[in-house]
Design a protein that fits this description.
Elements lengths: L1 H43 L5 H20 L22 H6 L6 H16 L3 E3 L6 E3 L7 H4 L2 H13 L19 H19 L1
Antiparallel strand pairs: 1-2
Helix pairs in contact: 1-2, 2-4, 2-6, 2-7
Length: 199
């Protein structure tokens, strides 16, 4: 009984405090990385540059987390005005607060990534991270699935624990996940994320 109460209290904290914290952190990091990407793109134009690609990958990484946290249509309590409250859904004010605009050049692969995460079925190449990812890892446990906020929080935290591979494919590492060029972009993006978190 004590363990169950403790778990329920922790889920309450995740729902009512940590959700906002995770949103704020990702939104701030998203805004900073988007500014860096736009500045570099302005300086270089549309060229094949690993640093520019890494900057875009960092923006996409935070955009996926935010997009997961944005309530879907069926997660918003539309009957609030008639007095019917569903406390397992977002209210309309929260739905407005947890929204952001995704740039058109990120839409395609960020939304495909979010779709794969929400579907949570099988292994396929990640549109954002560019390596095969097991989306079965995103199956939401029953004690999180019943509540829209907890469901999204769980998925966002799982996404934020994604790996940035340390090695690239060679004869010594045939099972490594990325070729050298994609690995370089991932490595630079991981460094951008690390620096931004440190700052």
């Amino acid at each position: 009984y004590y363990q169950n109460i403790l778990k329920e209290v922790y889920r309450d904290i995740q729902k009512n405090a940590f959700y906002q914290n995770v949103w704020d952190i990702n939104k701030n990091l998203y805004d900073a990385s988007l500014a860096r990407y736009r500045q570099r793109r302005l300086e270089l134009g549309s060229v094949n540059d690993p640093i520019l690609e890494a900057a875009r990958l960092e923006v996409a990484y935070f955009a996926v987390a935010l997009e997961i946290l944005v309530p879907t249509n069926n997660q918003v309590n539309k009957n609030e005005t008639t007095g019917l409250k569903d406390f397992n859904k977002f209210n309309e004010m929260e739905a407005d607060a947890f929204s952001f605009s995704l740039p058109s050049y990120l839409e395609d692969y960020v939304l495909r990534e979010v779709e794969n995460i929400r579907a949570a079925k099988g292994e396929m190449k990640s549109p954002v991270l560019l390596y095969p990812k097991n989306y079965d890892d995103f199956v939401v446990p029953a004690d999180y699935k019943y509540n829209a906020k907890l469901n999204n929080f769980y998925l966002a935290m799982k996404w934020m624990n994604s790996n940035f591979p340390l090695y690239y494919k060679t004869e010594d590492c045939p099972d490594c996940l990325l070729d050298k060029n994609d690995w370089l972009v991932n490595l630079i993006a991981a460094n951008f994320i690390t620096k931004d978190l440190y700052d």
